[in-house]
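In the design runs reported in the main text, the only information available to the sequence generator was the tokenized backbone. The following block is the verbatim input for one such run; it is reproduced so that readers can re-run the procedure and compare outputs position by position.
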């Protein structure tokens, strides 16, 4: 119960900071998120554009609420606020399921964190007040392609390799974040696929991916990588147990000689 209260307080504090310019204040994000136009105002603060289609949630039927949340998720994905693979149970969300509400809010918080990380140098040049306020007032329209150094962003993308501490799935998520400023357009999935082949740390996975050639899509790549990672983990567990058994057998033989 204490953990739930902590998460409610944390997400409520974040959302109040983000919505401060609009004058909206929530006492409990879990209870207030679907009250009135709160969801509309939050969505507009993230996308930076008016959304006439989304109005007050008050007085709507359950199905109407589900339909609007589904539309809201599409808008967030189309505006690159949340990743395409994010899945939210819209029915449970409209019932204020803490798991589903916090899942979406965490994706939005990560979007703000990503902004601070990508713009850290610029933010260091601002004053204290701007440094505090700017991440919560930022919307995509203030970071358009005319200010992005696309060749540099693509160089950074190409230099991004998988770390030893992350899975291929986590690596893909990191690449997708970096691809936002690369203007790959319709080839984005292919660019991420190619970079995974180049930058993955598994010498066993890379040949299998290359064997698929141009027919390999990102979904297939993820499935293959997940299967291989699971197999390697299981093999490691088996080897670990064999090592323990050898130690016990050796210890047993030593005790027999001493007896």
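Verbatim output:
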């Amino acid at each position: 119960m204490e953990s739930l209260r902590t998460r409610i307080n944390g997400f409520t504090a974040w959302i109040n900071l983000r919505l401060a310019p609009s004058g909206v204040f929530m006492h409990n994000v879990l209870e207030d998120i679907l009250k009135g136009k709160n969801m509309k105002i939050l969505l507009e603060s993230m996308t930076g554009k008016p959304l006439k289609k989304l109005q007050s949630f008050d007085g709507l039927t359950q199905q109407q609420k589900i339909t609007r949340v589904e539309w809201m998720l599409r808008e967030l994905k189309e505006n690159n606020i949340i990743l395409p693979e994010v899945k939210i149970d819209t029915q449970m969300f409209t019932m204020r399921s803490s798991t589903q509400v916090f899942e979406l809010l965490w994706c939005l918080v990560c979007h703000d964190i990503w902004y601070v990380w990508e713009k850290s140098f610029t933010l260091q040049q601002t004053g204290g007040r701007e440094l505090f306020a700017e991440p919560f007032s930022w919307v995509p329209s203030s970071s358009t392609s005319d200010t992005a150094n696309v060749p540099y962003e693509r160089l950074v993308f190409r230099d991004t390799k998988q770390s030893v501490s992350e899975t291929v799935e986590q690596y893909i998520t990191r690449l997708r974040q970096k691809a936002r400023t690369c203007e790959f357009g319709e080839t984005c999935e292919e660019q991420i696929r190619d970079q995974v082949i180049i930058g993955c740390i598994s010498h066993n996975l890379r040949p299998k991916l290359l064997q698929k050639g141009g027919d390999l899509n990102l979904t297939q790549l993820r499935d293959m990588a997940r299967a291989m990672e699971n197999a390697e983990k299981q093999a490691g567990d088996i080897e670990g147990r064999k090592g323990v058994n050898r130690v016990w057998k050796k210890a047993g033989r030593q005790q027999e000689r001493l007896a």
